[in-house]
Automatic annotation (TrEMBL):
It comes from the Bacteria. Keywords: ATP-binding, Cell cycle, Cell division, Nucleotide-binding. This is Cell division protein ZapE. Gene3D superfamilies: P-loop containing nucleotide triphosphate hydrolases. It holds the Pfam family AFG1_ATPase. NCBIfam families: ZapE (NF040713). InterPro entries: ATPase_AFG1-like (IPR005654), P-loop_NTPase (IPR027417). One of its GO terms (biological process) is cell division.
Length: 351
């Protein structure tokens, strides 16, 4: 039987350190993916090549190399020879399956592994302290960082140090992003002033390009039009009779997001199968827009279907946002929300 649960805008999730560490694993959507379940697009050979490279990289996880780590590479290691990067970095547009590939690497690799988004790692440092985070993650064989982006100088310095120290400890690193590692931060802040830190980050990784079209919309019709507000709840109850449905007002939800740290958005949507969102409007404030991007990612991770009224999702962000320094984030959010909205109106899973 359909059950309507508390609105997201009334939830105040508390997340302890143990939950943060326990949560460093692939989400529901990617819990059982593998290299075999990734279907490369024949029109883009880089996808099959990425699978091959990652399979090979998985075989190196848990195996130490002489003179490894960043210091070994900077100073030539043993015998004066530079060492290969300790990480692999998937660079490509949204919807080409980078997160699927990263999760497949996680599942294929031995030892204790961590898988989380960029914001989850920065929040872990805030909860544990930098030194304790290094000590904990240094015991892992592999650290996977999804959606790697540098949005401010503090994060640049923090992640530069963290990646450097984990590499020194022999931890293998893997990341996905829409931006080449040497270009992180471009268009977001005075990245040139932090060139050294960004270069230290770039030095950790061997870059693998993944080209292709957004698989979520490959050969599919245009995004569905928003529904009438008065139809939403009845349609949700009839279409998803066994689902946990949450009903939220868009304005109330966006306001609430400013009061909840993005690292807690996974817990914010816990137990939700369908989000009914009334009165979607174009977001004018960039700080609010960036938080909504994180929410969209977590909704997509957990396959929460969306039914909405108001503006269509391709009008969720301003034209300036869609062409500015964070444009790739906004395009990814629109892509994912469109897939969830299409699934919601068709009454089927978006997996």
């Amino acid at each position: 039987m359909t059950s309507t649960v508390a609105p997201l805008s009334s939830r105040h999730p508390k997340v302890g350190v143990g939950e943060l560490l326990e949560g460093l694993r692939p989400s529901f959507r990617f819990a059982e993916v593998s290299f075999d379940s990734y279907i490369p697009d024949d029109n883009h050979p880089s996808q099959a090549e990425a699978v091959r490279r990652l399979r090979g990289f998985s075989e190196s996880v848990g195996k130490s190399s002489a003179g490894g780590g960043l210091l070994g590479r900077l100073f030539g290691g043993r015998g004066g020879k530079s060492q290969a990067p300790s990480g692999i970095y998937l660079d490509g547009g949204f919807g080409v399956g980078k997160t699927h590939l990263l999760a497949s690497l996680y599942h294929a690799s031995p030892g204790q592994r961590a898988f989380g988004t960029f914001v989850e790692y920065t929040n872990l440092v805030g909860a544990l302290s930098f030194r304790r985070t290094v000590d904990v993650l240094s015991e892992y064989s592999l650290v996977c960082i999804d959606e790697f982006e540098l949005d401010d100088p503090g994060d640049t310095v923090l992640m530069s140090r963290l990646m450097r120290e984990l590499a020194d400890a022999g931890v293998k690193l893997a990341a996905t992003s829409n931006t080449l590692p040497g270009s992180l931060g471009d268009g977001r802040f005075a990245a040139q002033d932090f060139k050294r830190e960004i270069q230290v980050l770039a030095d950790q990784f061997e870059t693998v390009r993944v080209d292709g079209e957004d698989y979520r919309h490959r050969g599919l019709p245009e995004a569905p039009a928003p529904m009438a507000a008065e139809e939403l709840e009845g349609f949700a109850a009839e279409t998803f009779p066994q689902a946990q449905i949450v009903v939220d007002d868009f304005e109330s939800l966006t306001e609430h997001l400013t009061q909840v740290h993005p690292s807690r958005y996974r817990q914010l949507i816990e137990g939700v199968d369908v989000l009914v969102l009334k009165g979607v409007e174009t977001i004018e404030a960039q700080s609010v827009a960036l938080r909504f991007v994180v929410l969209a990612d977590r909704l997509y991770d957990q396959n929460v279907m969306v039914l909405a009224s108001g503006r269509p999702f391709d009008e969720l962000f301003t034209e300036e946002m869609m062409s500015g320094g964070y444009m790739k984030k906004y395009h990814r959010a629109v892509s994912r929300l469109t897939a969830l909205a299409r699934a919601g109106q068709m009454g089927e899973s978006a997996l």
